[in-house]
Amino acid sequence: MLDVLVNNADRKRSHLMVTAGARIAAIDNALTFLPYPRQRTALISLGGTSLPPPTAARVRALSADVQRMKALHERLTRLLSAPEVDAFDGRVRELAEDPTYPRLDDWDGRPFEWW
Question: Which domain holds residue 52?
Answer without folding.
Answer: 2-31+39-97
